[in-house]
Amino acid sequence: MDPYYQYFNAPNEAPINFYDYSYDRKTHDIVSLFQKAINGEYTAIQCYGKIANMAPNPEERNQIIEIKQDEIRHLRQFTQMYTTLTGRKPTPQMTERCPTTYREGLHFSVKDEQETVDFYLDLAEMVSDQKMKQIIQRAAADEQNHAVWFLYYLFRLKR
Ligand SMILES: [Fe+2]
Ligand SMILES: [Fe+2]
């Protein structure tokens, strides 16, 4: 490999493009990513309802219900963005089965929330609409906050 070239292509890092790709060129990819986000939010809503019911005390139960309310807001916002992009309503689908114990639920949630933060930050960079970008970045911040709550409850459970 050209030794000079390597400085411009760090592994695992996308090259920076200083020109704006046309939105249309990326729309197809972006729509499938919005579909993925919608399925993820939909699955989280179902599972957090179940996990909240397994919580050992009202404090944790109420916090998880509050998190579920955030996911309902995210689902509504992603649905609006999807509808704007495609002109049709999405059909949300469960992506996985919900955990069956509280401990498993917390594990599942920490991991899922953390992965969703990454996913949303990447998605926010892909969209050119500033309003959409802001909504997705705010959702990423919410998911990061959720991850910390679930991690805290997991920590308390282990003591
Ligand atoms: Fe969410
Ligand atoms: Fe979340």
UniProtKB/TrEMBL annotation:
Cross-referenced Pfam families, in alphabetical order? Ferritin_2
Q: What is this protein called?
A: Rubrerythrin
Domain of life according to the entry = Bacteria
Signal peptide span per the entry?
Answer: none
The record ties this protein, via SUPFAM superfamilies, to: Ferritin-like
